[in-house]
Design a protein that fits this description.
With 206 residues, this protein is an alpha/beta fold. It contains six helices and seven strands. Helix 3 crosses helix 4 and helix 5 runs parallel beside helix 6.
Amino acid sequence: MTAGPASGPATSFVVTDIEADGPDPGRHSMLSFGSVAVDRDGSELGEFTANLQPLPGGEQDAGTMAWWRTEPEAWRETTRDPQDPAAVMRAFADWVRGLPGMPVFVAHPLTFDGLWIDWYLRRFVGCRLFRRPRSPGLCHAGGLDLQSMVMVATGRHYRDCERVHYPVEWLGGHHHSHRAIDDARGYAHLLLKLLNRELSGSGQAG
């Protein structure tokens, strides 16, 4: 018997990509992020994107900035017209709360992008990214890690579950430009392929 799509309350998948000037939230700054909200049927529910002003007193990581110098066009887009982080995060929280059904955060990888969004929400909005008992949060109590989903769906070794190893069609023709909203669109396409079981057996077993 083949299982069909899971039934239950409506879900809004908030697929998010962030760009930063270093690896550590608080010490370094999130410069930009983009989110694409989709439902299980593949309908796009909306997009949110913004560039943020660096944190006062924040540092730039030397290695990260050396990499950014190899991506001058992406750097220009990421730093164009930066906005106040507090205003951005409040607007983002309101946008997520306005999505239908249960919001579920999705990233590639969850441990990087989720960490940044959580830190900025706690700093500027006073809530966590993930809901916990007796602890308010913006999204359902846990998120989806696209790398782990790819590994399970395809049988690939985890080290091969990185974007550079994916066929271009997995991202739906969205060029991974390191402009956050472009990258989020590609990952939203990948999520829908995974939810529709379109990647099953298409990888290499580890």
